[in-house]
Design a protein that fits this description.
Four copies of one chain form a homotetramer. Chain A is α/β, with parallel strands linked by helices. Chain A is 40% helix and 17% strand. Chain A has helices at residues 15-30, 42-46, 81-91, 103-114, 139-160, 175-184, 198-210, 248-260, 280-299, 318-322, 330-337; strands at 2-7, 33-37, 49-52, 96-101, 119-123, 163-168, 188-190, 216-220, 264-268, 304-309, 312-317. In chain A, β1 (2-7), α1 and β2 (33-37) form a beta-alpha-beta unit. The first copy, chain A, is elongated. The relative contact order of chain A is 0.17. Chains in contact: A-B, A-C, B-D, C-D. The interface between C and D is large, with 39 and 39 residues.
Chain lengths: 341, 341, 341, 341
């Protein structure tokens, strides 16, 4: 059996661990051979392949990124894209595909499966916002990096009696902010699911200073103020017309400083959160995802993706992972609020 | 309401995070006050207390160990021990206890609960072998430390064409060995649940060298050879009669070296695995355990302990956590075996 | 003998290690007692003190920040400031001061020493740009944090065929950029000492992509383009008139993206570089600085500061550390250039 | 010009960084080509070579170990060994050798240089005990790993009122013990240069407990008790006649426990200290060593080795690095003693 493998969307620590497990088990147990497609769906679309065997996956377990490259190419947005993929797969004698990716990549996989392509999906999102699985790999790494940064900021905040705002990933869901904020002992956590009230934030800042300690504010990149409450507006454009400047972290620090008169500084963690060696948890989860995905291929159980439920890896329908976004439930946030301030 | 808190058994990263969450929420939400008991059950037995309030728990979230101290004192093994505990609790006006510990500590809690003491338990074991909960805090930290050590050993093994044996914690269950071995890309993983065949181990060592790579063997401290298969025996005593020397890691390295003629070295991680700052996962889990435990106290739901099921914190009967040991299921080990060698 | 201790300027990992060593040795060997002044020169100016003994310094060695707080208060800029300091020192019976700080703090110390105050200085700058000493503590920690971030960015750059620009500290000197860039294997390093040519930078970016690899650019916050070569201008102001947005990292990424057509992203490490636990090197250096500083006080060798020369701690005149800035010598940069691209 | 490169002796983080810098600069600046010799002096002895160019050194900067392999082969102990090396070098058209190694490897290099072989040396010892250079790469990494371990042990020691003994590398010199002990805030540091008095050690242990804190003892593997003072003897042999058991750490813990009645546990860090990714300092130093070594080759300045003096890389005669051992000077140890206990 010949199996193609691709990785799509933003990179995420653990992608290589999945690829390695897929190939190692496929070769050793099922005598499969493998073809790597480069840069997500662009690979099968343009038939851009790379050899992928036991030698190619040696030593990649602890490495971040993806040896296959990634892109956001969507064949459904390209005239004749799907037909080209089907033709390329047939021509190369590919019997099945393992598609590793997030909402977009798996969305394509879902539709291709409906069109008869043999696909098994592996869910990937650093933001942990895919439904159908308890956790996705990469998330634990990102949370640990953010937590370590918060640890570091505490001592600076105390020494200088300053507010420190740290902006973490999370465009639509506040999982990284919530977990790292809890783990790092942040005093305020702001997430996309709950538009925040800048006056309440400033009141918390001031009450924290009243105890002689300095506040740390963790804000998800997608968090937004309740309408009309903030002076600073988003999205200043640079000279080339790109919106680069003025993320929520910077704006929030500015607004807090202006309103409370306390020095406030922002740190925007950015890409540092998504690169580098995965944590043990992420390597374990990614490896198990890979082992179970190739088993699903062997079983001919296509149109499914692997998922973590408790401590079990199970299979769910692909569309379960690409349906609605998994956001932070109100009770989880409220449970944490008692530790704020 | 006045609540006593104690930590028993071996220390574990996350104990302080539990204590902090218990106190912070108890004070802020339920207007409770707290008494810290020193050194596990020795505290209430000897009425050895320490003040425990919001000030005492400030800054302890990221710190390993336990500010309350620990011991293995068992009041049921002491003449009149239980009566003294009950008298001391009454005298100090303690309405309820939060007991944080493993099999032994929670075993005492279970029996005290049956005798009418108001106890809520928080499960703790670095080995992850308590039933009733998916994971316990401290385990993730230990696995990450072991994984980082394995990462480091790989390069030395390669450079010197040597076997490296790493002994990790796990007296009765191989969870740390299995998780860190998978995450670190070990070539052989030996756990207490499966007596190993030294000849098969040596065959794997030799087949690994045949690929020009050097083997890493992860062995849980409680792993044992199938009877009669190893020359080296356990438990040499030192000049004072203590069994200090010759753990399984050292013995295994000796035996491999002798049988295969390849240099073999052992590293025994020991206490390094259980100290220091907890990972983000462990801080998050410990914090949530603390928040839910004090809520159980507030609800008067005694004789229970908190537990992680999937991503939910739930309450289970105390005895559920202290019944049978949670060992590695055969299928989990077998799933990983394809990656060995 | 009664000795006052203060820390001024930006915080820096290792400050607490200095304070601890000063106090531990002063108490144990010279029977001194200590007074902590809060927030740099504001402390003696306003006689804001805190008790400082062996108990206060227990456990602070591995902690970032400063238990004494810091500020940028300059008594020479305040009417009657110097007189108030002298009066406060006399009133509290302070025989000598240990002043730990950078150019500004030690500049004040230098002038006070000339006015007869008994001061010994300990040089501190995370940027490593103080003359008179080979290295200052905090620098090694910052370089390691930046290097780890670069390691993480490599995998993302490769996976997405993107340029990643990382802005590190260094307003006037490029030490952090040079060391972390070398250690992280950056492809381009830009420092304040050498105005850069944006066209050459873009040419290097393109030549790197030609090898199928993705470029990492490390840029010191104080690096500047050769005049007139960049479209994007510095210093956009936010709605409150603060210059918050548009540091060199963001501007450079924008310019590279525009000129080369390759996606470029910037990461601004910011305050994460200066907080948290110091590296072993910084703890060792800070501890030795503290031990030698208090010995200088004991010897009555005032107007001096401690300095690292090779592996020796020596004393130099205070003004040596506050004279000219120690910038990156051209030959050091040129030596590294062969590794660019 | 064709240049051979080899790495000998124990592996050490930074070896790959040296190799990379040598090759990158040699190719780019001097148009050299390179031959890698496998496993130290065994390579040229048996003419076991591997290709070594810009592609082979890509990505190796952050990796521990050595891509060239290592061994302790000494051609001077082998009949006709030197002649074979000379013949092999000539046959392969090798004009010069870069030999990276410690006392033994550079000792061979020194003698070969006297016999007319064109050699430049790069000093390597994780123990930092080579004379002629302020520091060697690998040492900083080892010290950081040991310090992190000590940090972790503190919390366990406190929680259990136990003595924790940590054995670190250092057979003949106590540099790692001294630096990590200082950085980790150890209460007792024992080094090979000063035979220790077990009674004094136990007195310090007890005085530490008297302050309600628990002692951490750092002991170099080569530290020895003053004659006749310890009951436990070294060097128990295992069933195969290997001396595996009973290093100084275990023996010391046993003796302390017996004499003081306090629980004592030993941790032996072992090989974990020498593997894995190098610190930023070690990458910087190793890279600069490589750049300067290949320049020395280009300059024809053979029989020399590179060395760090202050912040400068200089050349010294090869024999300077292989003469006497650089041990811890008494005043450095005494300076630190005030922080013990």
């Amino acid at each position: 059996m010949r199996v193609g493998v691709l990785t799509g969307g933003g990179d995420c620590p653990g992608l290589n661990a999945v690829i390695r497990a897929v190939v190692r088990k496929g070769v050793a147990e099922y005598d499969m051979d493998f073809v790597g497609f480069r840069d997500g769906w662009r690979g099968p679309l343009e038939n851009d392949t790379t050899s992928l065997g036991v030698d190619e996956v040696r030593g990649i377990l602890p490495r971040g990124g993806t040896i296959l490259g990634s892109s956001r190419t969507n064949p459904f947005g390209i005239e004749g894209g799907v037909e080209r993929i089907k033709a390329n797969l047939q021509e190369s004698g590919i019997d099945a595909l393992v598609a590793i990716g997030g909402e977009d990549t798996l969305g394509v996989a879902t539709k291709l499966a409906e069109l008869g392509v043999n696909v098994v999906g592996v869910p990937k999102t650093i933001d942990n916002d895919l439904s159908g699985t308890d956790f996705t790999f990469g998330f634990d790494t990102a949370v640990n990096i953010a937590t370590e940064a918060i640890d570091r900021l505490h001592t600076t905040a105390e020494s200088h009696h300053r507010v420190l705002v740290i902006e973490v990933m999370g465009r639509h869901a506040g999982w990284i902010a919530l977990h790292s904020g809890l783990a790092g002992g942040a005093n305020i956590i702001l997430i996309p699911e709950r538009p925040f009230d800048i006056e309440k934030v400033c009141a918390q800042v001031e009450s924290r200073f009243a105890t002689r300690y300095s506040p740390i504010v963790v804000v998800a990149e997608g968090a937004t103020p309740a309408e009309g409450t903030m002076t600073l507006q988003a999205g200043e454009k640079d000279a080339f017309g790109h919106v680069r400047l003025g993320g929520i972290g910077d704006r929030l620090a500015g607004e807090i400083e202006h309103r409370t008169g306390k020095e406030a500084r922002a740190v925007v963690l950015g890409h540092v959160q998504r690169g580098g060696t995965p944590t043990a948890f992420d390597r374990w989860l990614a490896t198990r995802f890979g082992l179970h995905a190739i088993q699903a291929v062997h079983d001919g159980d296509f149109g499914t993706m692997v998922a973590l439920h408790g401590t079990e890896i199970e299979r769910v329908a692909l569309k379960e992972g690409t349906g609605e976004l998994k956001t932070v439930r109100p009770e989880l946030y409220e449970e944490a609020e008692v530790l704020f301030g």
